[in-house]
Amino acid sequence: MLKKLKIFIPIIVVVSLFFVSTVSIGAPLTNKIAVDTVTAQANNVTIESQVLPPIYMVIPFMLLLLMIATGPLFYKHIWERHYPKISILLGVIVAVYYLVYLKDYHSLMHTLAEYISFIALLASLFVASGGIHIKVDRKSTPFANVIFLLFGAIISNIIGTTGASMLLIRPFIRMNKNRIKPYHIIFFIFIVSNVGGALTPIGDPPLFLGYISGVPFFWVIDNVWYIWLPALFMILLAFYIFDKMNKDGKDDNSEYSGRIEFKGIRNLIFLVVIILAVFVDPMVFPWVPSLGPLPFGIREIIMFAVVYLSYRYADPVALKDNEFDFEPIKEVAYLFIGIFITMVPALELIAHEAKALGNELTAGVFYWATGSLSSVLDNTPTYINFLSAAMGKYGLDVAVNEQVRHFVSVDIIYLRAISVSAVFFGAITYIGNGPNFMVKSISERAGIEMPSFFTYMIKYSLIILIPIYTVIWLLFFFGKS
Amino acid sequence: MATIKETLLNGLQGLYYGNRVLLPFRADILKIIINDDILMDFSPFSKHIYLNETEKFTEIYFHDFKRLNEVVTKFETIKLVAVDKEDDLFNTDNHYKLALHLEEKHKLTIEKTDEDILFIE
């Protein structure tokens, strides 16, 4: 144990330094920094004073990330018993600072609204798809797996990366039961839970936030498909090579019918309801009533109703076969409430620095900065902050729909870089995107020994994905200002 | 003392109390999955689990949990790979993949996992 700890200490230190340096570029260590920001409204310009948090308020966030990374490794059962309290406590520290010291209610309410929206979507997709049991009775081959993952990548644009992950991870494991290895699950996370969903606003939450901020629905597929395709091809090729080398199951003489069976098909109706609910937003349809100042809307109410109804009326046989349990979504809900609140200071400092750096930011910088932060922060606020910074270069405001549409028509290279990297880099760590954790948990419950947080990065994501993402950068963003 | 085969055939039940499981057969246990924990170290030094065989039953203590019914919920099971004592351990055809369901009044139903339940040995 001590030996293992020694190996990881430098990594922990490097990761910590990375965060400190990322957020502290040019940020003086003062208690309060008053910044005048120009907020361009539709027809008038207003000046408002924004108070930035001090750098040390990033500590709760760093602490939470380190504990998420090290808890399951070194103190698993203590962590399992106490992570809800730890996550909430660290969140409360930041919340109290904002409420009492900065008297900034707006940032917290905004974060709370984003969190409720995030967890409503994830929980509804998790429960609705948990009541659907799919069984694919066919022999697993590397080629069949590639086709399966490609199908998963495409469908994740229709039912979201969470919905596709929950629906397909069990049939994927079952199909490969005689030759399953951790890399199967890891590539599933890469492709179905992340990269696949880069084509539509339904695919991944940051793209959805872009959509409700004014980015046209089909802008993403129009501008990203030719980046998505080579990235997906390279990852599938890497998977094919891995899978081709796996000789397990060669002597499998079982007979397969080739049939695909469904149980709990009625829950598909709930999945359709969730997809339609995504559009129930006053920003999309003005006739939808806003529930402001409440931090949620009609959409979230529909989604939480789906959580209840899709569980209440689910086929018990499908739930039993899926060994349905609320624990994975509970874990995401508790950890991400802490992550969402504690990352507020980090995101505000990053947004400030991005705006201050202004013209020095190139498409490549947006690509790598959005990507590296999306790996460990939630990619939705990261996306919106970098979009805000990119629009700031043109004196435009992300909060004004018309200006977002104008920005899209003026210069799309930044938005393309931000959109691609926010989605792609979610696969770098288990906490990069909501479904990653759920897929890991379901796989472990099936008896597959998944790599730890660091092993996942060192042995798989950094080695496989970073070279591919570098090629994407060279092909599409290198040297573009 | 029943075998696994007889237990399944006759629908014999086990029991659970707190973190202790009592199985009505004697067997070599190779792997246990509880929650997202995969247990394969059954040596006396294991901090997570303790196995004890008596003439009449096999008992398992899960040290990481106080009450099993708090971690194994309605649709979940404790899964284990086991081999009857008199059978050849090295012949994988003799390996039983079992699912233990926690029922009311400390009863534990034991069934062979069907094809629909994910269980990778």
Structural commentary:
The complex is a heterodimer of chains A (481) and B (121). In chain A, 67% of the residues lie in helices and 5% in strands. Chain A is mainly alpha-helical. Chain B has helices spanning 4-10, 68-71; strands at 13-17, 20-23, 27-34, 37-39, 49-53, 58-62, 78-84, 96-102, 107-112. Chain B is mainly beta. Chains A and B meet through helix 5, helix 11 and helix 17 of A and loops of B.
Keywords:
heterodimer; A: 481 residues; mainly alpha; 18 helices; 4 strands; B: 121 residues; 9-stranded antiparallel β-sheet; 2 helices; 9 strands
Record the SSE blueprint.
The complex is a heterodimer of chains A (481) and B (121).
Chain A: H1 2-24, E1 33-40, E2 45-52, H2 59-74, H3 76-101, H4 105-130, E3 133-136, H5 142-175, H6 182-191, H7 205-213, H8 219-245, E4 260-263, H9 267-277, H10 298-312, H11 316-321, H12 327-357, H13 363-376, H14 379-392, H15 401-410, H16 413-424, H17 434-445, H18 453-476
Antiparallel strand pairs in A: 1-2, 3-4
Chain B: H1 4-10, E1 13-17, E2 20-23, E3 27-34, E4 37-39, E5 49-53, E6 58-62, H2 68-71, E7 78-84, E8 96-102, E9 107-112
Antiparallel strand pairs in B: 1-2, 1-9, 2-6, 3-4, 3-7, 5-6, 7-8, 8-9
